Please model this.
Amino acid sequence: MFDFNAARKRSELFMAIRRFFMEKDFLEVSTPTLSPYLIPEPSIKVFRTDFMNEFRGHLPLYLIPSPEIFMKKLLAAGSGSIFQISQCFRNAEQLGDVHNPEFTMLEYYAVDADEKDSIELTIEMIERTQLTSCPAWIDEKPLIITMAEAMYKYAGVDMDKAENISYLRKEAERLSLTPAPDEPWDDTFNRIFLTYTEPALPKDREVYLTEYPDRIRCLAAKDNSKPVRKRWEMYISGIEIANCYAEETDNKEMASYFSEEEARLMKDREGTDDVIPPADPDFPSLCIPKSSGTAMGLDRLLAAELGLKTIEPLLLFPLSDMLSDGKSSI
Model:
């Protein structure tokens, strides 16, 4: 059965978000959901389709996992601060609870800002766009905690020492985890983080987990004063809702990232049927201004604001229903 009350709440939230950003002088943009190339991200699997043209033949196109690739091109072209509510697609993920292969994302870029500015902007946005009868977490002061603080508090791991892979592996073994002898640093780190730290984060408020290790490659700028990147992830009720970067603007760093991640993507998917989208050849040369970008799952945010533990009631046509034998959404 369709839940039209949930659909109204979704509409109210989206309208409130649009008002908030327009009052801040952000430009709303609309970018493609199909692209002939993507940003190389080995951890994300994508959907492929084919464009058929009598003159150009069949050309592969890919459903975007986020609008980042196009929004950063707009930033580089001088758009100023921008935002977008769009449909995004990620393959090979579980169905139900907090996952659906097609989902709604809010992505916003604040020019002449860093990741700390984006924390303030995000907290204000949630406060000003909240729905009525919201759960108690909205009234609690958000927690801002560094990854080093969280790893030590919830897993007993000293991130100053964790730069040494031997120390990190010994800590994993102490925690009854069994990393392989040749397991990469980031895989061992993520094994500890996902098993011990992330589940222990407070669930009664927004949690902003900042200063991720710089060994975890991404397009966030490095902090020159310590081995971390200027990024954060935000959780509500233990669920990841948003992530943010102080955007990388150094073209050499962007080119290095693309080269390394594309090679890793090819290696990880060699001998499989997994889609390998080509990397955007022009992206590393973009002149991206100082800015901070945030991506937020709006299905998850709406579920948190309504006190739900799953996003399924908020989707008029969840894929899990459409794929169930003999079951209809109607």
Observations:
- DSSP finds nine helices and twelve strands in the chain.
- Residues 4-23 form the longest helix (20 residues).
